[in-house]
Amino acid sequence: MADPKTFAAWWSGLDSQARHPDFEAVTSDRVERALSVEEPSAEDVLALLSPAARDYLEPMAQKAHAVTLARFGRTILMYAPLYLSNACCNDCAYCGFRAHNRIQRVTLSRAELLEEADAVADMGFRHVLLLTGGDERAVPRSELADICRALRERFSSLSLEVYQMDEDGYRQVVEGGADGLTLYQETYDPEVYAAVHRAGPKKDYLDRLEAPEAAGRAGMRRIGIGALLGLTDWRSETFAMFHHARSLMRRYWRTHVTISFPRLRQAEGGFEAPYDVDDAALVQMMCALRIALPDAGIIVSTRESAALRDQLLPLGVTQMSAGSRTEPGGYRHPDEAVEQFAISDQRTPEQVAKAIRKAGYDPVWKDWDPILSG
Q1: How many domains does the chain have?
Q2: Taking a C-beta distance cutoff of 8 angstroms, is the pair 296, 259 a contact?
Q3: Does residue 11 belong to any structural domain of this protein?
Q4: What are the tens digits of pLDDT across the range 202-213?
Q5: Separation CA 94–CA 100 (nearest Å)
């Protein structure tokens, strides 16, 4: 049963019309008003996401740039993903790790994990994102906590992108040393969610939507949300992300909320995105949320091309991955397991850092240490 105070309870109680507002009805005058206000409302965000706002991408970009400089300066936090396992018991239509795909299943031993961790640390990273497939049996929460303890000497910040857990589970990994969680809802439309999540624990829409709240209650320092763009209309998904992020920021004000904009990429199984999300759409949604949520972190992953990532940099980005491998063991032994999705930006971490510096920004390899929280 959802807590009536949570975003999940509020959002799931809305009708379809409220979750999919009429973006087409927005006029250019309404967009201009939205750009002029100091603290944008939900109606202003709707205007900035509308088709009418396509003619205002340049002023939106300029405002997003100014807001980001005022809040975050010229720093870009660098991080790397580290896959622990691709074992999965979910049937998610779009994912290369889905249970019905006939791929080699790999779960790293502790020795293999430490070897991978050393490879990532040797590239300069001090912030790492630990990932698993959706099968908790492969890497139980108690083992996740132990892994965090084992990696704390190598990394200053350990985030997780794993199966959803309850508050006790998140508290267990926080006590082990995890300080961040990334958990994409994938889609905020419950009907589309049911269609693409056909079996497994992840099929529970409300449980998935409640999980970031559980992490906030457990004391997670950083919570990242996102929608997998291409499953349904991107405007409605971005409008939902705005509400979700704002709710988390208000309720867990000590927690830093980040937003990602992953577009569907080719993966094992051949799933084709039913909705197109072009580069202009990515710019529009990123600028709209940066303007509306000035304190939120914005992440752009290696799903996007090197050229596009460089162009997006001034529009509100605060974190970037680099040199990413999306398969277990991929840093030391690439191509021995199936990757979760295809990487577009193939540059090395140093090449990405060089591009960041060329754009007038500072790549930051460490901005946190557990000692800061006692």
Answers
A1: 1
A2: yes
A3: no
A4: 999 999 999 999
A5: 11
pTM of the model: 0.94
Give the pLDDT score at 49. Answer: 98
Report if residue 202 sits inside a domain.
Answer: yes
Q: Residue with structure tokens 């497994």?
A: 200
3-state class percentages of the chain: helix first, strand second, coil last, to nearest 5: 45, 15, 45
Tokens read off for 78? 């660098």
What's the rounded Cα separation, in Å, for the pair 252 and 230? 29
Range of the domain at 331: 59-366
Compute the C-alpha angle 181/179/301, nearest 5°.
45
* Domain-located, residue 52: no
And the tokens for 221? 């320092």
Return the structure tokens found at 116. Answer: 């991978």
Cα–Cα distance for residue pair 261/301, rounded to 1 Å: 8
pLDDT in tens, 235-291: 999 999 999 999 999 999 999 999 999 998 765 557 888 999 999 999 999 999 999
Listed in order, strand segments (DSSP E) in the chain are 75-83, 127-131, 157-161, 180-182, 222-226, 256-260, 297-300, 319-321, 362-364
Residue 28 lies in a domain: no
Q: In residues, how long is the chain?
A: 374
List the CATH number of the domain containing 353.
3.20.20.70
